[in-house]
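hey so i finally got around to running the thing on that chain from the lab meeting. sorry it took forever, my laptop kept dying and i had to restart like 3 times. anyway pasting the input first so we r on the same page abt which one it is
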Amino acid sequence: MRKWMAAPGLAACLALVALAAACGGEDRPNVDVIEDGGTSSASASGPGTAAPGEVSPKPAGAQQVDVVLREFALEPAVASVKAGEIYFLADNRGPADAHELVIVKTDLAPDKLPVEKGKVSESKVKVVDEIEAFAAKSQASKSVKLSAGTYVLLCNIVETDDGQTESHYELGMRAALRVE
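ok and heres what got predicted. didnt touch it at all, straight out
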């Protein structure tokens, strides 16, 4: 009797797997993501197909900095803010790639950060915080306490596609932010 009861559940499970396979495929080829420690495959779960971002409520009294991310630009709505709690609302307008928002405190110009294999070496700069990679056409947020100084906002994703390296940082996804 139990064998027959499990059959409908198995059929439903197989139908879901088939549906996911039919709906989940993009016309985007598999992409390799270059990490600090090497290369890892990033097909269905890599930067090109990251999950949608998560937006949390803005904390009371926090200053909001809206940041637009797109291939290949990073555009904060303001160039400076007052020191304190900063609520970053990142809008990934894609059109296709996942992006992240890394906040680095530095006196270096946005295009002068140390780079290894197309990626800003996060061990050689002071990373304050970051919004992890999130899908195109979604938003994500992060609240961070910033002291006075100069910062660089950047996307540090590096992909290889058919042997071509695509460094989001080197392609222009970086901007200065002054905190007074």
